[in-house]
Fold this sequence. Notes:
Blueprint: E1 2-6, H1 10-20, E2 28-32, H2 35-44, E3 49-53, H3 63-71, E4 76-81, H4 86-94, E5 99-102, H5 107-118, H6 126-130, H7 138-147, H8 152-162, H9 167-174, H10 178-192, H11 197-205
Parallel strand pairs: 1-2, 1-3, 3-4, 4-5
Helix pairs in contact: 8-10, 9-10
Organism: Magnetospirillum aberrantis SpK
InterPro entries: CheY-like_superfamily (IPR011006), EvgA-like (IPR051015), NreC/VraR/RcsB-like_REC (IPR058245), Sig_transdc_resp-reg_C-effctor (IPR016032), Sig_transdc_resp-reg_receiver (IPR001789), Tscrpt_reg_LuxR_C (IPR000792)
Protein name: Response regulator transcription factor
Amino acid sequence: xxxxxxDDHVMIREGLRPFVEKVSPGTEVLxxxxxxxxxxxxxxxxxxxxxLDLKMPGMNGFQGLVNLRxxxxxxxxxxxxAMADRxxxxxxxxxxxxxxxxxxxxxxxxxxxxxxxLSGERxxxxxxxxxxxASGNAKDQNSGALIGRLTPRERDILRxxxxxxxxxxxxxxxxxxxxxxxxxxxxxxxxxxxxxxxQAMKLLVDSEPF
Length: 210
């Protein structure tokens, strides 16, 4: 496993590196302080994931993300930013980011988020879900009604899901097997009328906190 940790602040890279190394046994972390440095690394290195600072030199807003997704579609990209407002998160996901990690996220939560992304899913911060409950439109009410059909255990799993935890972590938190978690998630998706985690998260964006 090889991950590029890209941020123009050395202290931030030094602080995050120990957590990124915990994502998978034997993970190799490559550091970059600008977008051009990322491009140079990719010329010689095979990489699985890039953690990309939004305000880093050479990024030009989201253009750096767009360029990476175009030129290296097999590499998963996660945005890292202190500006984790709803608009920035949704725009990053729309442009192809596989996740958006606020810089205030705890180290343990970041590890879980990166593991989720590497498992093939997307990570959407819980704050995005929580901030969406004030719209009060019909779609909110419909989402709330669907969630109301879930059992208490299914709601527990859904809460952990929206925090970005993979099945293994959810199973450990609830002291059940991964098979049980998968079974519950199948029921949750069926009741919510969705087919996967990403669709469930998009539905939760339009629902009140539960």
